[in-house]
């Protein structure tokens, strides 16, 4: 979250997933408190089939996660990787 605020991001689009959107919202609030609202950062969920910019994130994440040559090929477009253990 701090990375988004540091670059003065205004909009965060998340892939909507049944049963997970509320988890995303809680995580964002826990990580940022009031900061996103204070800085004008809006976050919203969209169906990834309807939001072309989410396709790019899916392509990059899939390629990186596939490893091997795919990970090597996508490396130039990935700025950094943050690893997290999901519950």
Q: What proportion of the residues is helical, as a percent range?
A: 40-55%
For the biggest β-sheet, the strand order reads 1-2
Tell me about the biggest sheet? 2 strands, parallel
The tally of beta strands, per DSSP, is: 2
- Using only CA atoms, what is the Rg? 14 Å
H and E order: HEHHEHH
Commentary on this structure:
It is a single chain. By secondary structure, this protein is mainly alpha-helical. Helix content is 51%, strand content 11%. The chain contains five helices and two strands, in the order H-E-H-H-E-H-H. A two-stranded parallel sheet has the order 1-2. Helix 4 crosses helix 5. The protein starts with a helix and ends in a 13-residue tail after the last helix. The model has no long low-confidence stretch (mean pLDDT 84).
Features:
single chain, 87 residues, mainly alpha, two-stranded parallel ribbon, 2 strands, 51% helix, 11% strand, globular
């Amino acid at each position: 979250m701090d990375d988004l605020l540091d670059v003065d991001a205004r909009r965060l689009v998340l892939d909507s997933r049944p049963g997970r959107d509320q988890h995303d919202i809680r995580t964002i609030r826990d990580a940022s408190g009031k900061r996103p609202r204070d800085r004008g950062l809006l976050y919203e969920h969209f169906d990834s089939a309807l939001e072309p910019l989410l396709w790019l994130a899916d392509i990059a994440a899939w390629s990186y996660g596939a490893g091997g040559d795919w990970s090597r090929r996508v490396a130039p477009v990935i700025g950094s990787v943050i690893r997290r253990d999901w519950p």
